[in-house]
């Protein structure tokens, strides 16, 4: 189990609330991905329902995350086979959860629903969840894990208390990489640390996905642009012809982190270009799971945004 040094304040707020007379029923766990928010949610839920250490899967802790893509993938899951995930949390999952909430908790008087990532709910799923947040069943608590809280409906945010999870320092991430991946090559370790952007998850994903080549090309695009489109083609090849959801998320997070890394030392005009590129990358990352983008064209768009931030003359078609 990872000991997260950035959870101290969140635990203080959570336990203070637990000791109060009226525990808030809705919580948003907000922060960049890879900061241990889901681990916090599971541990906090276990405290709330009083789960014994010997109970691995507590019946009063419900987890909603990506389900199977379709009926075919659902059959694969039922058969114990690998299955393709949906791109969002669907209204059918919220409806199923709400049906379960019509019964009493199994082992006590409290129940916890964890949604992760809550910012990837379908719009109608968000509207359905809002009804539960407006009139929560007695003893029911909601933990919404989110990397992009602005993507949640304002009405959902207004009904929840927010716990914010700060970024990790480079020194903290270095120690945690040594604990989680002690045999990694030193050069790859340093590359992962440089691209982490304050997130242990980003650093470990960098190693797992082998993103060194993609990171190098992104840095070259940011530094020199790409007048001949050569680097964008190389980036598309490094990303791969059929990247899965996890790899695409890692690519977007890497690009955003490298753009943010350039900001402090950039002159005013370039800072504005970097901020514009970062915002466009965030927007594109939210659209990519929903729309059926061609992977090659998506890589070209990412490369164009980075090249534009370098001062390239062409405008990205985003």
Automatic annotation (TrEMBL):
A Pfam family: DNA_pol3_delta2
InterPro entries reported for this sequence: DNA_Rep/Repair_Clamp_Loader, P-loop_NTPase
Protein name: DNA polymerase III subunit delta
Protein's organism: Altererythrobacter arenosus
Taxonomic path: Bacteria, Pseudomonadati, Pseudomonadota, Alphaproteobacteria, Sphingomonadales
């Amino acid at each position: 189990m990872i000991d997260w040094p950035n959870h101290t304040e969140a635990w203080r707020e959570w336990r203070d609330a637990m000791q109060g007379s009226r525990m808030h029923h809705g919580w948003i766990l907000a922060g960049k991905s890879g900061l241990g928010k889901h681990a916090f949610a599971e541990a906090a839920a276990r405290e709330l329902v009083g789960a014994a250490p010997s109970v691995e899967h507590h019946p009063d802790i419900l987890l909603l995350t990506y389900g199977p893509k379709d009926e075919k993938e659902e059959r694969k899951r039922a058969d114990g086979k690998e299955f393709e995930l949906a791109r969002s949390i669907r209204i059918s999952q919220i409806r199923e959860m709400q049906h379960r909430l019509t019964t009493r908790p199994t082992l006590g008087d409290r129940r916890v629903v964890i949604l992760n990532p809550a910012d990837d709910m379908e719009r109608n799923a968000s509207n359905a969840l809002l009804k539960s947040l407006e009139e929560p069943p007695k003893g029911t608590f909601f933990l919404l894990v989110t990397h992009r809280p602005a993507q949640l409906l304002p009405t959902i945010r207004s009904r929840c208390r927010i716990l914010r999870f700060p970024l990790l320092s480079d020194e903290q991430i270095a120690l945690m990489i040594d604990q989680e991946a002690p045999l990694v090559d030193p050069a790859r370790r340093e590359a992962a640390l440089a691209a982490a952007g304050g997130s242990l998850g980003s650093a470990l994903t960098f190693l797992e996905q082998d993103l060194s080549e993609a990171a190098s090309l992104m840095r070259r695009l940011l530094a020199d642009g790409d007048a001949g489109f050569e680097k964008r083609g190389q980036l598309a090849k490094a990303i791969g012809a059929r990247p899965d959801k996890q790899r695409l998320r890692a690519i977007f997070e890497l690009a955003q982190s490298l753009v943010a890394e350039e900001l402090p030392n950039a002159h005013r005009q370039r800072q504005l270009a970097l901020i514009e590129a970062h915002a466009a990358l965030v927007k594109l990352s939210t659209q990519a799971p929903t729309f059926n983008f061609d992977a090659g064209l998506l890589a070209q768009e990412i490369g164009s945004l980075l090249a534009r931030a370098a001062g390239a003359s062409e405008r990205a078609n985003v």
